[in-house]
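Quick start: read one record
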Amino acid sequence: MSNTYSIGTPGQPWGKEEKSQWLNTVSIKRSYQDEVVTKIEALKNRFDIEQYGALSYNVARYPQFGICSLNIDASKPTILITGGVHGYETSGVHGALKFLDTEAQNYTEYFNLVVAPCVSPWGYETINRWNPQAVDPNRSFYKNSPSEEAKNVMEWVKGLGLNIFTHIDLHETTDTDESEFRPALAARDGKEYEEDIVPDGFYLVGDTDMPNTEFQTAIINEVRKVTHIAPADDQGNIIGEPLEQEGVINYPTKKLGLCSGFTNCQYGTTTEVYPDSPKVTDDECNDAQVAAVRGALNYLLSIR
């Protein structure tokens, strides 16, 4: 299939001019302050809240916050939860905040909870996968990262001085992945866009090098109480990858620079909610993210 994206020349990677053209198409569509920061501030009496960074695009507008359970104890396992690495993936942000508000204190006796609910606030406001430099933060979790979003959260987590036992990264797969973001990616990189199918339902992305099959199963079984699990396509794949088990595919997370791979955790997963399904509501999408965290933590408690 030909690359027919509106910016760039087919077969040629973007330069500064094309990236500038792309940025000029982007606009603010919602308020990070009103929709996210106010919810973070409402947690201040129950958690430690720290501003760990701010994006240089607009320091005052885009502070980045980390939230930790009170009385961190290095003898407890530490659970890292990240949301909004792709800012447009709304339930990742609000699912993380809903977990903190409604269920987190059921687990603080057993775990240190460390949460970055909205890693990419500019992406949240502009409903975008990339940052203003047309860089995907979720392919940028490595040393000398080109993404401020990724770099800042990595430095914050490292500075806590805690060994991350489990990392749960909350994401979505949306219809705009196929209608906008993947075609834009192909154009940016001078490649042909190959159309795929957006899975209708929830799925997980585990780590090829450490699949933790039973851990992923426990999450899927908890989430299926809230929403439907994505079926495989006619080739037995989800987004081009073969199923490891129902609702689970695996990626080499470190090699790809994915957020879920940067901590050397023992248990890691990336959730993928499908908010465009006619079968779900926004609340159910948030609840699916909460269920994923709950399923992960209950599994970890069961194997102590």
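Residues 282-302 form the longest helix (21 residues).
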